[in-house]
Design brief:
The complex is a heterodimer of chains A (about 325) and B (about 350). Chain A has about 325 residues and is α+β, with helices and mostly antiparallel strands. Chain A folds into 4 domains: about 5-45, no CATH class; about 60-130, no CATH class; about 140-215; about 230-310. Helix content of chain A is about 55%, strand content about 20%. In chain A, helix 4 crosses helix 5 and helix 6 (about 60-95) crosses helix 8. Residues about 1-5 and about 10-25 of chain A have low confidence and may be disordered. By secondary structure, chain B is α+β, with helices and mostly antiparallel strands. Chain B has 3 domains: about 5-80, no CATH class; about 85-205, S-adenosylmethionine decarboxylase (4-Layer Sandwich), CATH 3.60.90; about 240-330, Ubiquitin-like (UB roll). Helices cover about 40% and strands about 20% of the residues of chain B. Chain B has helices at about 5-15, 20-30, 35-40, 45-60, 65-80, 100-115, 170-180, 200-205, 240-250, 275-280, 295-305, 315-325; strands spanning about 85-95, 120-125, 130-140, 150-155, 160-165, 185-195, 260-270, 285-295, 330. In chain B, the strands form 2 sheets. Chain B has a 6-stranded antiparallel sheet with strand order 2-3-4-5-1-6, sandwiched between helices. In chain B, strands 8-7-9 form a 3-stranded mixed sheet, with no helix packed on it. Classes of the chains: A alpha+beta (about 325), B alpha+beta (about 350). The interface between A and B is medium-sized, with 26 and 23 residues. Chain B: This is Centromere protein N. Chain B: It holds the Pfam family CENP-N.
């Protein structure tokens, strides 16, 4: 008689070792055992243990094939992109160098798409730069008659607010000339024109812009003085705001009135170059607090200086 | 109150409209406001003058000519549009021109003028808008200053512009010299600009009006009450029209432009038309005076150009009104060659 282990080697091993596939998949094997009988199942297990049944799973195989195909296409795509990136780099390099208007390349249509995209990107970048340039107070140049005349706008600002915009129309036909402008007539435009216009346009515009911005600053300061410091009267000023005469009152009723004259000799600056203080009381201008105020007026915009003087009790 | 003071006061009371008189007298401040309120300003000017005179005599027993001149100045400063103002231009500025200051200017001007002419009365007043007003009554060696026909001068310190009202050619050199010395300039000349409104010619010369310049940014749309047009009708020339308007605005300003009444062109050119033999071959230049006049000349010219009645681009003859700040031109053959053309079209 055959031993059980001879008759059912797989079963015994399966039972004794307990590590085979059948154990790990009990549900399905049990179902098979139920429908086909125990022996046929044992037979199957035996064959399995002997390695007679091929172990391959057809579904898994398909998946591997799929993945291989994916790898293949991705590799192809990668190569394609690599080529494209190389080409783009090359084009960008040539555009940066400035010879992007290569007619022939255009006509052949080679790389035309990338070229167009790159150019658009470049254009947007330049536009943004230009906008930023305007925002920080650059000049606008517009050609009014091609090759002959152009118009420059100079923006002025004070403490972060845009104020007046001035314009100049320049003629380039023979020598550079100012055709018309709306710069205030008291501005020494002629002197600036003589200094720089023919030789150095950016320098001319820069110095004019300095003058105009300083003028705006002085104008705004006067507005602020009139607005904020009620005890001080602006007695005299002029179109260029190069002279400012202020009548200041002391904090007490019986204090003598003081006449403060600010002279702005440097027209490119918003600060005065000379401060004189006059009063009925001769000793007052030489008092230490007025001496301090004088230096304050020279160092600070006039409305700020007056505000400090107000707080420290020099003026009402 | 002496005779001259009386006459000047009478003139002022007569000249000032009854509706304005109360305000002018109040600004003057020689008569208390309570008494002014009691005055009847609807009576005849003769009665009114007597009332004002008696009030003045009661309140300030020593009312002098100076005070009455001040009254006249107050009225004149408030209403400068009473005659023709001429613009003058100070040239060749000294280095220290920017330091001229009101007090100094007053002293210098008075001193210089009295050096030049013995009998002259000068009154200087600073107006709010940074302008210095000078009233000059001229006399001569044998006559006292004529207070009834004063010359008015308006000058903005530290600018080269002077505006003169009622100045005779006899006194012109005197005034010019005094002004040149007091403002520290080398010389002074006529700007060839005149008009009835002081503020207009001042704004015009100082370019404090809105000038059009081309910009990158779209111009704000001007509101117009145009009738709704048929959507099927397309304007073929809309673009040209827009361009003409832009050119017109660039040449003559836009929005609220200063009011100029006239532009005069004195032609001393040869006649070049065809078909008129008598005019064509003359040795003498063909002399003509062309005068454009309008309630507001710049607006009229702007309209002419934008409506296509005058040619575009705007001829330099017309655009130099704004560019050079003049409204009187002498055109000779040498200067601007073919200038007599293109001026014919107008209204």
């Amino acid at each position: 008689m055959m031993t059980l282990s001879e008759r059912f080697p797989g079963f015994v091993r399966g039972v004794s070792t307990g590590g085979s596939i059948s154990i790990s998949r009990p549900g399905r094997d049990m179902d098979a055992a139920r429908t086909q009988g125990v022996f046929s199942h044992l037979h199957l297990l035996e064959r399995g243990a002997l390695g007679l049944i091929p172990q391959e799973d057809p579904a898994q195989n398909d998946r591997v094939d799929d993945l291989k195909a994916v790898i293949h296409t991705l590799r192809a795509r990668r190569d394609e992109l690599r080529v494209q990136a190389d080409r783009t780099r090359e084009l960008r390099h040539s555009i940066d160098k400035g010879d992007f208007l290569d007619e022939e390349d255009y006509r052949t249509g080679e790389n035309s798409e990338i070229r167009a995209a790159l150019l658009t990107a470049k254009q947007t970048e330049l536009k943004k730069l230009l906008k930023a340039h305007h925002l920080i107070g650059g000049y606008d140049l517009i050609e009014t008659q091609p090759g002959k005349r152009f118009c420059v706008s100079l923006h002025t600002a004070y403490e972060g607010t845009y104020c007046t915009t001035y314009h100049l129309e320049l003629d380039l036909t023979r020598t550079v000339q100012v055709v018309r402008h709306d710069v205030p007539p008291s501005m020494p435009l002629d002197t600036l024109v003589q200094q720089n216009l023919q030789t150095n346009l950016p320098a001319f515009l820069h110095s004019l812009s300095l003058h105009l911005n300083a003028l705006t600053s002085r104008q705004q300061q006067i507005v602020l003085v009139k607005d904020q410091i009620k005890s001080v009267d602006v007695l005299e000023s002029n179109q260029l705001c190069s002279v400012l005469v202020l009548l200041c009152r002391g904090p007490k009723q019986q204090d003598p009135e003081t006449l403060v004259t600010l002279l702005y000799r440097d027209l490119t600056s918003e600060l005065p170059t000379q401060v004189t203080v006059e009063s009925e009381d001769d000793a007052l201008p030489n008092s230490p607090q007025w001496k301090k105020s004088k230096t304050l007026l020279l160092d600070q915009p006039v409305h700020k200086a007056l505000e400090i003087m107000n707080k420290t009790g020099v003026i009402a | 109150m002496d005779e001259t003071t009386r006459t000047v006061l009478q003139r002022v009371v007569r000249k000032v409209p009854a509706t304005r008189l109360r305000e002018v007298l109040r600004t003057w401040g020689r008569v208390p406001a309570r008494q002014l309120d009691l005055l009847d300003f609807s009576t005849s000017k003769f009665v009114l003058f007597e009332d004002v005179r008696s009030l003045c005599e009661v309140n300030s027993n020593r009312l002098t000519l100076k005070h009455v001149c001040e009254l006249e100045m107050i009225y004149f400063i408030g209403n400068p549009a009473q005659g023709v103002w001429r613009a003058c231009h100070l040239t060749e500025p000294d280095d220290d021109v920017m330091t001229v200051e009101l007090r100094q200017f007053k002293e210098q001007f008075k001193a210089r003028l009295t050096e030049l002419i013995s009998n002259v009365s000068v009154k200087i007043k600073k107006h709010d808008d940074e302008a210095v007003w000078i009233r000059i009554a001229w006399g001569d060696h044998f006559h006292r200053p004529n207070q009834l026909k004063p010359t008015y001068v308006v000058h903005h310190l530290q600018t080269p512009y002077v505006f003169v009202y009622n100045l005779s050619t006899k006194h012109k050199p005197l005034l010019y010299q005094a002004l040149v010395l007091a403002t520290r300039h080398g010389s002074m000349k006529d700007s060839h600009l005149s008009g009835k409104s002081l503020t207009s010619i001042r704004d015009f010369l100082m370019r404090s009006y809105q000038q059009a310049f081309p910009t990158k940014y779209a111009r704000p749309l001007q509101e117009k009450n145009t009738a709704p047009t048929n959507p099927n009708i397309e304007k073929e020339h809309a673009e040209q029209e827009e361009k003409r308007l832009q050119l017109a605005c660039e040449a003559f300003g836009e929005g609220n432009v200063p009011r100029l009444e006239t532009a005069t062109y004195k032609l001393e050119t040869r006649y070049r038309g065809s078909g008129n033999e008598t005019l064509n071959n003359r040795e003498e230049p063909f002399r003509a005076l062309i005068k454009f006049s309008s309630a507001n000349l710049l607006v009229s010219l702007n309209h002419c150009v934008s409506a296509g009645m005058a040619e575009t681009p705007v001829t330099p003859l017309l655009s130099s009104i704004t560019q050079k700040g003049k409204n009187y031109f002498v055109i000779t053959d040498k200067g601007s060659g073919n200038s007599s053309q293109s001026m014919v079209q107008k209204k």
